[in-house]
Amino acid sequence: MAYITLTKIGEYGVCQDKGTPNFYVSVYLPGKGSMIYRSLRTTNLEDACVQVRSLVDRGVKGDPAEALVQRPLRTVGEVLEFYRPTAEGQASAEFGGIAIDRMTRLMGGQALQSMVKSDFDRFRDAALDEGISLSAIHRTLTVLRSACNLAANERRLPRHHVPAVPYFYTKNHARSAPPKGRVMTTREIAAVIDALDFLHLLIAVVYLVNTASRIGAILDATAAQINRVHGLIHLNAHDRVQTDKWRPTLPITATLEPWTRELPPGFIVNWRGEQVGEIDTGFEAACRRAKLPGGENTYSIRHALGRYLLMKGVEPLEISLFLGHVRPPDSIETTLVYSPFSPDYLFKAKTAVEAFVREIDSFTTRRKILSPPWL
To answer: Which of 44, 48, 337, 367 is the residue whose CA sits 20 to 30 A from 239?
Structure first.
């Protein structure tokens, strides 16, 4: 074959076979001491130049054979599909899949290289029209940032094609947002406990009032996460990667300890041996039977206990560690103080939680929560 070099882009040449309309990319390999040619599988000069420019933009060096097989990613939809297997392996897989589908539907065909803030404004407005909260839109766009970063690291997307994804949900939004659930009093929590009609709901609520955990962590928890030797409950399973919603290791309170005895293997909150997917329906029904004013959910207990800890004078750092708002400190001094195996670990928070649970128990009439029915 006789090749004619039409133009140079970086270290690569865009060539054409003299006797055919086919285009090739050429590069000199010092190790071989010769020029090599790889087919671009096109007869269009503009397309050939785009392909070679993409090699340079992606930082490809030397023989481009492998990079040519991996087609460069150009649109929002292509980058998200490339990222989907990674998202499916994360702890937040369910939300990641929903976010990918939503962005693909609302802006999947847009070229990343040409996206500007107004494009994201239109996505935000469309999502808001569908009833999606601003905080959920913020989390959704975080998935796109991660997808673009991965694609750029894998040299499937030129870094200068990665768009500037705006932040629509700021710290000021978070500070001014209403609580996810109405803050309940201990008397109201007691009334709901008396109105619960199934054992698995009672177990879930008992763990909630003793840990102030997010309900997802309680429903995911298994008996294997309870360390009775050291009096700890690991709210994050050992094989689960932590997310920004940190699942802490907490001391087992005296009021929770009886509920950790004689547990069968498997999920702590279960229905006939199977994991329970949600308790919102049963909890909200109990709130209605208790004739509460409305706006209550499982988060209401978390808010109530958080405020109770403040009223009892527990230090903000200890409250943040207990609630999983911050990760355990990295410095040696504070790690020693807050080590889960130290007798002083979250001691003030633990004492206040026990007082909180006993106060609730003093108001219950139908169910007592200081001892499980199986004991």
So the answer is: 337
* Residue 330: predicted pLDDT: 60
Q: Which residue has the tokens 């997802």?
A: 216
Q: Which two tokens stand for residue 104?
A: 């693909």
Comparing CA positions, the residue from 189, 183, 181 lying closest to residue 367 is: 189
Cβ density class 250-285: b for 16+ within 10 Å, e for less: bbbbbbbbebbeebeeebbbbeeeeebeebeebbbe
Which element (helix H / strand E) includes 56? helix 45-57
Tell me how far CA of residue 266 lies from CA of 72, 94, 270, 275, 282, in angstroms.
Answer: 45, 22, 8, 8, 22
- Is the alpha carbon torsion for 193, 198, 199, 204 positive or negative? negative
Cα separation, 160 vs 137, in Å, equals: 24
Helices (H), 60-167: 65-69, 76-88, 93-107, 117-129, 134-153
Query: How many other C-beta atoms lie within 10 A of the C-beta of residue 76?
Result: 25
| Beta carbons within 8 Å of 199's beta carbon, 6+ residues apart | 373
Angle (deg, nearest 10), helices 186-195 and 280-289: 110
For residue 2 the two structure tokens come to 């006789």
pTM for this one? 0.62
Query: With 70 as the cut, is the pLDDT of residue 172 above it?
Result: no
Inter-residue contact 174 to 244 (CB < 8 Å):
no
Rounded to 10 degrees, the C-alpha dihedral 66/71/76/82 comes to -50
pLDDT tens digits for range 257-302: 999 999 999 999 999 889 998 999 999 999 999 999 998 999 999 9
Q: What is the rounded distance in angstroms from the CA atom of residue 350 to the CA atom of residue 179? A: 24
Helix (H, G, I), strand (E, B) or coil at 75: strand
